[in-house]
Amino acid sequence: MSEIDNKYVQLGGTNSVLGKATSAEGGCADGKGRYRHYANGSIFWHPLTGAHEVHGLIHAKWAQLKSERGFLGYPVTDESASSGGAKGRYNLFQGGAITWKQDANEAFETHGAIRDKFWQMGAEAGLLGFPMTDETKTSDNVGRFAHFEHGSIFWKPSISAHEVHGDIRAYWSNHGWETNSELGYPISDETLTFQGSQRRFSDFENGVLYWNDKTRAVSSLPKFPAGSQPADQVISTIKDAIVKALQFDSRIYIKSGPLLRKLTDYSWDGAAVHNRFYKIYVGVGIHVKFVPDPTSDLDFWIEISFDRGKGTAWSSLHHWEVHTHVPWPTSTKVSASEINSEYKKVINPMVGVPQNQTSVPDPNKFHLLSAKVMPNGDLNVYLQPLLG
Asked: What 3-state DSSP class applies to 54?
């Protein structure tokens, strides 16, 4: 007997949910797996997953998504009952899951980072409940989303997946979802403003939505003027720090810059979202007697970080690059690698070290929610409003 036959017997054979066989066992298109169809479903086998059955609306969704030939791949479980009191069923697949809510007329898939977030939140037994859509492309054609019974998860390549729910989600949806340039995509899940508070907020790319537990009102917070800085002030401070760092050798002189080359997008490192970086360029020369001077191009990525609990924000060097050119005949005396090693001795210890740290005025009254680099380079700080 084959593995598919063994699974069929284990499920109860003709008395199982699958019913009678309607096809012979056959090979899948990939040349690795095998299948057999039955009156009410199918059993698929693959050497890496074993044999598992799919049936009903979950099978219909899987077939719609090209079965094992699609992004979900082969099933890795039989159809199973949802846990935690959730009334529904699911199958796990190599590339995601398909979940069905009891009495619904369609099952929906989740996969990738959205699936990971959904699973992290307890899947269908958690806050969000059952999926109500498949993963879908956002209207700006950049990200992806899935709607659930009690909220949504949005994903963008640079920031990964974050959930929105309740009154904050309603406000965001009523104001254009991710296409609203004053907010953009969420870069955090909904979060307490501070430990012990009942007020909540969600951080977005370009703003903060705040929820008052007493009024249930949601507002888009204005920046806190005393802690925020215009782009030219922030960039000037960063440039001064870079020039100071390059003064470790009196032979070094600046040929061009410091210049702001660009502001990056947000970035996701697998665990956290990083603020937009200021990328600063400096071109320098190194004076060498009697021969042409070597030149170096240095790029510095400066990050603004913050600690909500401590109410502090600071800048730091996230990473940097150097490219050095040594002309002939100077190259007979010194190499580019020797010059770069001197830069590394001085600059590498600066990576991640807080600079220009600031604090909120009174941590007992003011609670820092976010400090974000805006698309124009401004640094905006957001605090919980002082409400009774």
From this structure: strand
Tell me how crowded residue 150 is: count the other CB atoms within 10 A of its CB: 15
Strands (E), 3-104: 26-27, 34-38, 41-46, 50-55, 80-81, 88-93, 96-101
Q: How far is residue 149's CA from residue 152's CA, in Å, rounded to a whole number?
A: 8
Identify the pLDDT of residue 369: 96
Give one DSSP letter per residue of 174-220, joined into a string.
HTTGGG-TTT-SBSS--EESSTT---EEEEBSS-EEEE-TTT--EEE
Read off the tokens for 297: 């191009």
Cα 11 → chain centroid: 41
Which pLDDT does position 226 carry in this prediction? Answer: 86
Across the chain, which distance is largest between two alpha carbons, in Å?
94
Ranges in the chain, pLDDT < 50: 388
- Phi/psi-derived region of residue 74, left when phi > 0, alpha when psi is between -120 and 50, beta in every other case: beta
**Rounded to whole angstroms, how far apart are CA atoms 291 and 75?**
69
DSSP H or E run through 262? strand 252-263
Specify whether the CB–CB gap between 88 and 48 falls below 8 A. no
Rounded Cα gap, residues 147 and 150, in angstroms: 8
Sign, CA dihedral 208-211-212-218, equals positive
DSSP code for 112: H
Angle at 41 between CA 39 and CA 43, to 5 degrees: 115
Q: In the structure encoding, which two tokens stand for residue 339, read together?
A: 């010059």
Per-residue tokens: 295:
């030149």
**Angstrom distance (rounded) from CA 80 to CA 90:** 5
